[in-house]
UniProtKB/TrEMBL annotation:
Gene3D superfamilies in alphabetical order: FAD/NAD(P)-binding domain
Protein name (database record): FAD/NAD(P)-binding domain-containing protein
Record-linked InterPro entries: FAD/NAD-bd_sf, OSGIN1/2
Top-level lineage group: Eukaryota
Amino acid sequence: MKLMMLQGLEGRSNNVVSLLFDCLNLPCADLGLDSDPLLHWQYHPDKYVDHVVLGKGPPGGSWQAMDGNVLTISLSRWMELPGMDYRSFGGGGPPTCRNSRASVASMAKYYSEYVKLKRLQENFRCGTVVTDVKPLANDQWLVTGVEHAGDEGALDMPFHYVTSHLVLATGNYDRPNKLKVPGDSEPYVIYSLLELERMVKQNKLSEHSDPVLVVGAGLSAADAIIACRFHGLPVLHAFRRSSGDPGFVFRQLPENMYPEYHKVHQMMTDGGNSYKKYKSLPEHKIIEIMPDYKVRLMGPGDGGSAACYVIKVSAVIALIGAQPDLYFLPQSGVGLGVKKDLPVASRSNPIEVEPFSYECTEAPGLYAIGSLAGDNFVRFVHGGALAFTSHIHKQLSDCEASAAADEAVEV
Ligand SMILES: Cc1cc2nc3c(=O)[nH]c(=O)nc-3n(C[C@H](O)[C@H](O)[C@H](O)COP(=O)(O)OP(=O)(O)OC[C@H]3O[C@@H](n4cnc5c(N)ncnc54)[C@H](O)[C@@H]3O)c2cc1C
């Protein structure tokens, strides 16, 4: 019956609860409508479930670790949390309109402010790293980790929790994909935009440097090209597809909303005629990275045969996706994915969860939400949170009811 109700709903999630929640929260958002939510939020203190949130950094997850200058792909209202208008917190700087894209920095601030304004701080233990998760007898989980001491010189504090309900929300972005060629860990090979900005700040890169080699053809690689252009750095841009490939992600984005990505796409297709410090290298592979800032590439040579050649660069920035880091789980999470024999991977192998509870199909008491469960946009994370909370709440209520019944029998 529930599945019947969901027929006809569409969205960028394969999880039915996430999809339904999104359709109620942001009705017809993908058609460009800014309609009021069909949901009403009400606080029920009696339904409170005792919990603690562990995380490496401040509230906001990956948003706190991305380059703050980049604009979001989503409109800011699509990334709001329940009961707090993006405009109302006011700390993000322009733009504050809910119907435009925001800066990553302002979203990061919105998420940390949310925890304060909703008085959730007591539940958050920031600066904590979970290092081990083990199943115990009696359907419980032992969670071990360390809390980083704030003060310099102070010791990190180990901690343990035993719980019957453990929710994984550790995201997909902790392990950037490496180039997997000799030399891919040379110090001048970097895998994040923040690192590029750091190198500019430290004057390791300037407009007089050798070119920065950007590898990748997605939105993050485009962000790196935009950043290089902003700083006046010369750029060589290597990607595997041909320049006219119809599969580039840029083609899915409306030009009026994402002009900067369309500009990059244009540079990729015209080879760089529109910006003299940029040169595109379509159909290119990185073969080897040498310690002396030289990189061996393979690209289409004359007459259709592949040709190898060497270029001199100042840095290589490879933005070719990322994977979750589930080292703390038994077998590093292998067995939890949709493809059981492979590691959990962003997009190709999300954690398999029960559709209405988000409980892992292979591990009762363990739940997964967000990008780990295939919900790659913030607007779909709420569905997972609702599903697991409802499931846990029901289980706890059932336990209380059966304990009360036992007591009544004893009396
Ligand atoms: C460049 C980029 C741009 C994006 N733009 C958008 C956008 O415009 N709109 C949108 O809706 N979504 C966007 N996303 C996706 C968005 O970031 C995620 O959907 C969102 O952050 C929710 O993810 P999450 O809660 O699953 O995990 P995350 O936000 O990734 O948070 C997981 C957190 O868990 C921490 N963690 C991991 N392992 C441990 C451990 N062992 N111990 C303690 N903590 C740990 C991580 O360090 C991280 O802080 C973007 C993502 C990227 C990378």
